[in-house]
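Hi everyone, sorry if this is the wrong subforum. Our group has a chain we'd like a structural model of before ordering constructs, and none of us has done structure prediction before. Sequence below.
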Amino acid sequence: MRVWVDIDNPPQTRYLLPLARRFEAAGHEVTLTARGYGDTLAILDSEGAVFEAIGSSFGKGLPRKLLGLAARARQLSDFVRRQPERPGLVLAGSRSATLAARRLRIPSFVIVDYEYADLLVFSASGTNILFPSVIDSARFRRHGISRERLMPFDGLKEDISFADVDFGSVQGHDFGERNGAPRILFRPPAEESHYFRRESRDLAFELLRYLAGNGAKVVFSPRFDWQIRYLESVPHWPQEPVVLDRPIPFVSLLKGVDAVVSAGGTMLREAAYLGVPAYSIFRSRIGAVDRQLASLGRLYMLSSASDFPRIDLSPRGCLRPLHGESHVADDLSRVIIERASASRGLRRASRV
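Answer:
Right subforum, don't worry. Here is the predicted structure as tokens:
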């Protein structure tokens, strides 16, 4: 079967590439497309992936997002039609790809680990939803997604991301002399997302001032170049911040810091999964995966400045991955092919 994989943003490279490699290992041909958004293309280049770049950032605001989504869906449809063989499925990180798949009558699959994301397009496009079983499936059904299209799995998305990683062979990234200062990886809010709340940004400014005042060395990982201006909210930095201006392999990055602060997102859950102290300043609705990680003592919610002293500024201990050997990536790649094959068989039978 020809498998089409579409990547929409940098975090999706973490879990979609391991699945794409498993499709290839099983003998399927893989076509990879990606949107030029953030560091997505640079990460794919660093991984040696062969891909077609289609589309770019949609910009802020709902009208621009809708126009961009529709335009990229058309671009993807045109790209697929030009191929010598139509894919038997698309595993997507983007709403554009699921709309294109609907138009092309190709089964589509997405992995969702935040149940409060906007599900309207996935519902309208008839997409199959793979999700950690810790999420209540009723949330998806309330959005018109039928039980038949829900595919829960035991484990977390991070089981896929870390499936091929030999943690012992990865060295922590060298950020220079420590000088006794704790290294805190700081990820600002996703201000272009539909679930962004201004409270997250305000809390981020307060926290940066707190970290500077306590002698921390901040490793700043902006989602957008203009977010570097966040650092200007601090009048004086005793420890000069490090601004990440290029992709760093994510395990090496996490092994090079003592803690992670983020307004939700993949990087935060990856840190929590590995046992790196993880602190969330996310001020929208907390999803089931984050609640589970918090209940295990791997993720801490910071809701106001009074919570900042909870941040452990001491050197980090050894990594403690949440799960040992995981077969989630192998299992999902197999069930996706099985579901797509069954769908193709039904379509053929309906034409007889």
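For your construct planning: The chain has twelve helices and 13 strands. The mean pLDDT is 92.
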